Amino acid sequence: MLSPEQREAFDRGVREFNEGYYFECHDTLEDLWSGLRGESRDFFQGLIQVSVGHYHLGNQNRAGACSMFERALRRFEKYPRRYFGFDLEAQRRALAALLQGLAENAPAAALAPSPPPQWHFDVDASAGP
Description:
The chain is mostly helical. It has one domain: TTHA0068-like (Hyaluronidase domain-like), CATH 1.10.3450. The protein contains six helices and two strands, in the order H-H-H-H-E-E-H-H. It has a two-stranded antiparallel sheet. Helix 1 (4-18) runs antiparallel to helix 2 (22-33) and helix 4 (62-76) packs antiparallel against helix 5 (88-103).
């Protein structure tokens, strides 16, 4: 599914996300996404939107975070519970919880997941959908 160069960029984007570098993750994955075609394109765009949502959340931009998380959920709708070696169902639940907290105007500390969110992809399964 991904060329070796694309896989390297993807792995870098995941590392950036896991280290809390959400804006950098967005840049890295967007470069990868721009060259993708086919059924996985929306999945990768959803990941970018999750990253941007966390960036907004960290900057107290609740409206921006809400918009990105909602858009990511819509992108993820057509994919199964696990996709590309990723527990997409757990990601959907985490986004729904964040959106609920945002809707309830929860304090910023309550919205910041502790520990920070982490993405984990099963390397063998992520070779394809």
